[in-house]
Design brief:
Layout lengths: L3 E2 L5 E5 L2 H4 L7 H7 L19 H10 L4 E5 L2 H4 L8 H16 L3 E7 L5 H5 L8 H16 L5 E6 L1 H9 L11 H28 L6 E13 L4 H24 L21 E13 L8 E4 L16 H14 L3 E6 L9 H17 L4 E6 L19 E4 L4 E4 L1 H12 L1 E2 L1 H7 L1
Parallel strand pairs: 2-3, 2-10, 3-4, 4-5, 5-6, 6-7, 7-9, 9-10
Antiparallel strand pairs: 1-13, 7-8, 11-12
Helix pairs in contact: 7-9, 8-9, 9-10, 11-12, 12-13
The structure holds 5-hydroxymethyl-3,4-dihydroxypiperidine.
């Protein structure tokens, strides 16, 4: 390992999602999913990290990490608990949180949809409902009218591909369906939902006389590679990449629906991104399966490669490959909206961070405009289907006492943020 420096205006921070940390909300799809006992380790999101009641304490955690920015999400079910009825108090709470962040010198990046839905929306068919786009747009308008003066940077939708795949192909996430027709509808509606939200955020902020608005999607990108490199597997890997990445990236960035989602430009030809958001974790190997529901694609681990607690391969080079590719295509700034690893013993996290930041340094040296890095995540939280057992935090969370304890890798990250790079001193302290 050697020292390196990132630009002085590079921003470091952490990312979270409301459902994973806030607790206290029974009005959303994941509360019901947990009540129905789908969570692998039997844990529940009803308390999570109790962040709703610990905002100030958690901002202190960010300050101790020397964070320049923080990615948080709005819980739609709190803001619009019943269809068309908006809760001004919930909105005021988020406004207060953002004011606190700003006062601490931390730039907020606000996600409008991060996997969880209000129950009324879920019960009406969620994103498979043709009205979902208008419903989402109305909610977005309300949020931006209330926060637009404080927030310039927005993620419309987090990982639409993961949402659609897990809820409508593997059926492991709510609403637990396995339906290609619904998968296509959901993917299409989320894409159009982003396009309309993109315009709406800009429209509301510019009516407020504000400029500098930055809107994008946080794309979940996994390197998908043929396991045996045979011709059929290569083809299959390209197909998987097309269906898992390309149709979402082109749809949300260019406004263009690609087959099998449809064709043409439902909202008009254009550019619907001010930055390109990258959530990057791992690589999967692709081989042939006999499962038509998975389009004959089998996802496998790269045998012998280093992995985290969830068996995800650690493959930093993948971050370079994706950022380079999308920079060359869109020429907008790249924000790493998530990157992190599941590591309860904290034995690999610091090295993981180093290796991924090193790729960012390479990208910047090669002329790619990577501007921000959000580590996933601030503190251990409710990791969806995995519950509390999957530990991604820079802080360890004791879910009994709600005590947060800085992990050694968190100390490492704090120093890296402070120096905007890795100094020899930091490396020496790693031992
Ligand atoms: O916890 C999730 C997050 O909500 C979305 N991206 C991946 C993370 C780790 O699985």
């Amino acid at each position: 390992m050697e020292p390196f420096k990132l630009p002085d205006d590079f921003l470091f921070g952490t990312a979270t999602a409301s459902l994973q940390i806030e607790g206290g909300d029974r009005n959303n799809s994941w509360f019901r999913w947990a009540e129905e006992r789908h969570i692998k380790d039997g844990s529940h999101c009803i308390v999570a990290c109790d962040h709703w009641n610990r905002v100030e304490e958690d901002i202190e955690l960010m300050k101790a990490l020397n964070s320049h920015t923080y990615r948080l999400s709005m819980e739609w079910s709190r803001i619009e608990p019943e269809k068309g009825k908006f809760d001004d108090e919930a909105m005021a709470h988020y406004r207060w949180e953002i004011e606190k962040l700003t006062a601490a010198g931390i730039v907020p990046l606000v996600t409008l949809h991060h996997f969880s839905n209000p129950l009324w929306f879920e019960n009406a068919g969620a994103w498979a409902n043709p009205q979902s786009v208008e419903l989402f747009e109305r909610y977005v308008e309300y949020v931006v009218k209330n926060l637009g003066d404080l927030v310039a940077d927005w993620v419309t939708i987090n990982e639409p591909n993961v949402y659609a795949f897990s809820g409508y192909v593997t059926a492991e996430w709510p609403p637990g369906k396995s339906s290609t027709a619904d998968y296509l509808k959901v993917s299409r509606n989320m894409i159009v939902g982003h396009l309309r939200a993109y315009r709406k955020v800009h429209e509301v902020r510019s009516k407020m006389g504000l400029s500098g608005t930055m809107v994008g999607v946080a794309h979940h990108l996994r390197i998908l590679e043929p396991k045996h490199r045979t011709a059929p597997e290569r083809l299959l890997a390209r197909l998987a990449d097309y269906l898992f990445h390309e149709i979402f990236v082109v749809g949300t960035s260019e406004g263009k629906l690609l087959p099998p989602l449809g064709w043409g430009y439902p909202v008009g030809k254009g550019r619907y991104l001010d930055y390109f958001g990258v959530n990057y974790y791992s690589r999967e190997m692709i081989s042939l399966s006999s499962n038509p529901a998975m389009l004959f694609v089998k996802l496998e681990r790269n045998e012998g490669a280093p992995v985290n607690d969830l068996g995800w391969e650690i493959y930093p080079e993948g971050l370079y490959r994706f950022c380079k590719k999308y920079w060359e295509r869109y020429r907008v700034p790249i924000w790493i909206t998530e990157n992190g690893t599941c590591d309860a013993s904290d034995s690999i996290r610091a090295r993981f961070i180093y290796d991924h930041l090193w790729q960012i340094k390479r990208l910047i040296d090669d002329g790619v405009k990577v501007e921000r890095y959000y580590h996933w995540t601030l503190m251990d939280n409710f990791e969806w289907l995995e519950g509390f057992s999957a530990r991604f935090g820079l802080y360890e969370t004791d879910f009994q006492t709600q005590k947060r304890t800085l992990r050694p890798s968190g100390g490492f990250y704090a120093e890296v943020s402070k120096n905007r790079g890795v100094t020899q001193e930091i490396l020496d302290s790693l031992g």
